[in-house]
């Protein structure tokens, strides 16, 4: 399963979900404004990254 965390329902997020589901990949979408990440979830994500938050947060708009 692929988890996508997002804060807006923008076209790039919708395009990514469409592409993933077209290849029969299971996608779990989570709006972090409506369902914020817990401290434990943030720590779990950081433990899986090499470069800290720069691996997790998209800076392109």
Keywords, separated by commas or semicolons:
single chain, 61 residues, alpha+beta, two-stranded parallel sheet, 3 helices, 2 strands, globular
Description of the molecule:
The protein has 61 residues and is α+β, with helices and mostly antiparallel strands. The chain is 41% helix and 16% strand. The chain contains three helices and two strands, in the order E-H-E-H-H. The protein has helices spanning 11-22, 39-47, 53-56, and strands at 2-6, 27-31. The chain has a two-stranded parallel sheet with strand order 1-2.
Count of runs of 4 or more consecutive helical residues: 3
Chain-averaged pLDDT: 91
Radius of gyration: 12 Å
Helix amount = 40-55%
Helix-strand category: alpha+beta
Order of helix and strand elements from N to C terminus: EHEHH
Task: Find the count of extended strands (DSSP E, 2+ residues).
Answer: 2
Strand content: 15-25%
